[in-house]
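Progress against Task 2.4 (sequence-to-structure conversion) is shown through the following example record, which the project officer requested during the mid-term review.
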Amino acid sequence: MKRLLPVIAVLFATAISAQDLVEVSYGPSYKNQAYYRLSDDATTSLDNSSWDIAFTTYGNNVAGIHFNESAVTFGAEAALYLAPTNNFDDPINAGDLTDRLYNDEKSWDYGAFNSTRDINDPNDFGWGNLDAGTGDIIGSKVFVLRFKNGTFQKLQILSLTQGVYTLKHADLNGSNETTFTVDKANFQDSDFAFLALATGQTLPSIPHNWDLAFLRYAAPNDDGAGGVIQIMSSGVLSAPGVEVAQADNVVPSEVAFADYEDSLSTELDIIGSDWKFFNNVSWTLAADRAYFVKAPDGNVWKLVFVDFGGSATGNVVFSKELVVQTKVGEEAGAFGNVVLYPNPTSDDATLLFSAKTAGHAHVQVANLFGQNVWTGSCHATAGFNAAQLPLGHLPAGQYLVTAKLGTEVLAQKIVKQ
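Structure tokens generated for the chain above:
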């Protein structure tokens, strides 16, 4: 029997709460990565040296593989290279490695292992190519990883088949070859599987409902000669499904979200690392900048960075203010009772709602990256209404359904199986 879930979120913009001061830490010498949640300030930390590769575990058509670029202050950096051969059995000389690869910090869908892809070919994932007949991604390139201790290993992602990544790695001369598998199904509550190559073990999952990651990563900078140089930076990256807008040259306490709502972006480095500057003596923070962070649940927070301890402590202090709140209830002026079912669904779904007044209702379905995957509209009458949501063609994952009637907006997540 289908179970109806009469739960709905009504969004409204107003002065919701006073500012709170929050401290999140990279740890001394930036030894940790911290994954932070805005709703309750929960933070999960990982040691920089605890993992090497992160596999995306969400979505059927996502095969992003990220390299762990993080390093402590003045510590040895790990590095990822494209091998000079596509044959894993060929011996490799470390001196022949020239093509260093980096994560692009723009989308979690693609990491350093995807960086060689042809962006005009949807079947090219960089490390491998999609077989349209089977739906499998078959590895086509060989990579070399230089560990922080200076040793090298070659590796190849062999395939992504029915949600299972298979990879192998060995010494550069082919000895000590080992094969691992990582099954997306084991990480349904997480966005990534973090793998330590030395042990072949994955780390405990980071819950998928984090919003911001405080970590070190290689960021492109102007080298002063018309080129680009990658510099290790301590920054903040936003999670899948989180949108961020940056407000510059403002009075942070007075700036309003309404003026920046159209600037929201799903690019994960909008906050990035330039909210602070080193003046050769100490760190200075941008005093005329604020950030608006929209979480997947619709809540919008204003963040202003107020203190940074640098490598001595790794502590970051920022003010947090809820400026748009997702409220559960049935007090909205336009909408009455609401039901979204079935949820989860393996096919289409139906949005049932009662309207207190007639009007034109706009309905959208977006993925967790904020990208609209379906848009529709209907004329709502005063009373009972139904809107069909054609979700059957969408890949498995979480989606956000929003309906707008007048100035009222409904928002609710749905799971597509």
